[in-house]
Design brief:
Low-confidence stretches: 297-307
Strand content: under 5%
Largest sheet: none
Structural class: mainly alpha
Number of helices: 14
Helix content: over 70%
């Protein structure tokens, strides 16, 4: 079955990721060019009006205005990031649907879908994971030793809160879940173990984030996202968990909740313990979900009867 199901193993596993990166890069490049182009035109007009005649003089003028140009890019990075993610969605949706049809064609067993009420546990789990992981990061002071994380935080929280919610709370999680869980995790899962699929998709997910703080954070989060996909039997589970985690983080940052939390070590300790307790309780409930395909259950029953 595997030889028929996978014609080109390399392209099957790495093709979607390469497409995702290339589309995101090209769209972000075009968007950044579109943001800078009007100001570059103004700069050219200004150079002509001021009598700049040589290429060296023009370069000196551009360098003198570079701070303003970088500031413009800085102000629009979230929107540009979301635009790049948005353009990857049609491709990953196509791959996602194509894979599901192929799985049905080859009669690959599908995990049972969890009952809707089970998603309440998932939401509570997501809130606890978000607050708990951030509290641990504050306690370890890991963020203070990562200048790239500080810079990334300034960029992500610079736009208006509504823009943050739409771009970072919905669009980016949707794009990331489609490629990392919907396509990559699922493709490996249908031919291998959960452990292999979870580790592979999580490593790529983490490496797509550019600093040590986010790397550690997404390593943990990525494993949880893969796990709930497995248990709930639906792509909606990791998508909802990812959105809940991101929106919780955005709300607490906007309202000053994280600043209040980080002000005292005792608060961090208490909140971390509470989140660990609630998160563990929800994890146990999620763990009890029977995700096994019906065909597997029937096979086990038949085997027990024959024994």
């Amino acid at each position: 079955m595997n030889n028929k199901f996978i014609k080109n193993p390399f392209w099957y596993l790495f093709g979607p990721m390469l497409s995702y990166w290339i589309i995101g890069f090209v769209v972000k490049f075009i968007a950044e060019f579109a943001v800078l182009m009007p100001h570059m035109t103004e700069l050219l007009d200004e150079s002509l009006a001021s009598g700049v005649t040589t290429q060296e003089q023009l370069m000196q003028m551009i360098m003198s205005k570079s701070g303003k140009l970088f500031e413009l890019l800085f102000q629009h990075q979230v929107e540009i990031l979301a635009l790049g993610a948005l353009f990857t969605i049609p491709v990953t949706v196509y791959l996602f649907r194509s894979d599901r049809k192929k799985e049905l064609l080859f009669n690959i067993p599908q995990n049972k879908k969890a009952e809707p009420v089970k998603y309440i546990q998932l939401i509570i789990f997501g809130i606890a994971v978000c607050i708990g992981l951030n509290a641990l990061a504050f306690m370890s002071s890991i963020a203070l030793y990562s200048p790239s994380y500080q810079e990334t935080s300034q960029i992500l929280y610079a736009p208006a809160f509504v823009v943050q919610l739409i771009c970072l709370g919905i669009i980016v999680p949707l794009a990331e879940e489609l490629i990392f869980r919907g396509v990559l995790f699922r493709r490996i899962r249908v031919i291998g173990s959960f452990k292999r699929a979870a580790i592979f998709s999580t490593l790529l997910f983490s490496l797509s984030h550019g600093n040590i703080v986010q790397l550690v954070y997404t390593l943990i989060l990525g494993m949880f996202l893969a796990y709930v996909y497995e248990k709930y039997g639906s792509f909606k589970a990791p998508l909802i968990l990812h959105i809940i985690v991101n929106i919780t983080s955005l709300i607490l940052t906007e309202t000053g909740g994280f600043d209040w939390l980080a002000a005292r070590a005792s608060r961090l300790a208490i909140v971390t313990i509470i989140c660990a307790f609630i998160g563990s309780a929800m994890y146990v409930l999620i763990q009890r979900i029977d995700e096994r395909p019906e065909i597997t259950i029937l096979q086990e029953e038949n085997n027990s009867i024959s024994e």
